[in-house]
């Protein structure tokens, strides 16, 4: 009887471990693509950025994150305005990550732990990034949908990227009275400015 109980527990735990390992392998592959690009000094900044933008578009739950970040300005906006905002938000995210990557100087990283949250159907993957001055802890929140993985949030030193962006965007949205169409104009201008600085 005791053997059956142990076997039941193992069978219950194995799928969770398997799901976490699968997401872990997927994430490592995607991170390595970007790192290899930044290790290539002959690759122009524009090409490096395009790789990051493609990764964001393919692997981040951009629509869900963008909607959450937009807050109350989302309701009442037309479909076209929402679609334009999502596109601008994804580019904004890619530009932010590309800007951070500019300081990359062959740091090492290690995926230290992964676990599967059965209740929320989310895999949590811990990553430690090492530099000459120490290390920083990053936790990726990954969800599987339609047989594909998507990043739904990124926590750097326990600070959520999604929550941070919502606060940042809320301050900007206040200046246009939460009008998403007007906000799109500001975000587009900001993206253009960031992009020009990045590709120099």
The major β-sheet equals: 5 strands, antiparallel
* Strands, count: 5
CATH class: Alpha Beta
Helix count, per DSSP? 6
Number of domains: 1
Annotated CATH homologous superfamily: Tgt2/MlaC
- Helix and strand sequence: HHHHEEEEEHH
- What is the third-level CATH name, the topology? Nuclear Transport Factor 2, Chain: A
Label the overall shape: globular
**CATH architecture verdict:** Roll
In angstroms, what separates the terminal alpha carbons?
69 Å
Write the layout of secondary structure elements.
Blueprint: H1 2-39, H2 45-59, H3 62-70, H4 79-101, E1 108-117, E2 122-131, E3 134-145, E4 148-156, E5 159-160, H5 161-174, H6 180-198
Antiparallel strand pairs: 1-2, 2-3, 3-4, 4-5
Helix pairs in contact: 1-2, 2-4, 3-4, 3-5, 4-6
Structure explained in plain terms:
This protein is α+β, with helices and mostly antiparallel strands and 200 residues long. The protein has one domain: Nuclear Transport Factor 2, Chain: A. 59% of the residues lie in helices and 22% in strands. It is built from six helices and five strands, in the order H-H-H-H-E-E-E-E-E-H-H. A five-stranded antiparallel sheet has the order 1-2-3-4-5. Strand 4 and strand 5 form a beta hairpin. Helix 1 packs antiparallel against helix 2, helix 2 packs across helix 4 and helix 3 crosses helix 4. The radius of gyration is 19 Å and the shape is globular. The N terminus is likely disordered.
């Amino acid at each position: 009887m005791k053997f059956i109980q142990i076997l039941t527990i193992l069978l219950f735990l194995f799928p969770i471990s398997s799901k976490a390992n699968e997401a872990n392998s997927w994430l490592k592959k995607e991170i390595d693509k970007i790192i290899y690009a930044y290790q290539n000094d002959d690759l122009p900044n524009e090409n490096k950025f395009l790789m990051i933008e493609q990764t964001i578009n393919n692997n981040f739950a951009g629509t869900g994150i963008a909607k959450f970040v937009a807050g109350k300005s989302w309701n009442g906006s037309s479909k076209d305005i929402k679609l334009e905002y999502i596109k601008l938000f994804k580019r904004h995210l890619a530009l932010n990550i590309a800007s951070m990557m500019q300081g990359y100087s062959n740091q090492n990283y290690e995926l230290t732990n992964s676990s599967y949250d059965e209740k929320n159907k989310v895999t949590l993957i811990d990553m430690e990034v090492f530099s000459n001055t120490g290390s920083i802890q990053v936790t990726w929140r990954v969800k599987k949908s339609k047989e594909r993985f998507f990043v739904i949030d990124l926590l750097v030193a326990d600070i959520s990227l999604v929550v941070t962006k919502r606060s940042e965007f809320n301050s900007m949205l206040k200046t246009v009275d939460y009008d998403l169409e007007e906000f799109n104009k500001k975000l587009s201008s900001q993206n253009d400015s960031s992009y020009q600085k990045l590709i120099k």
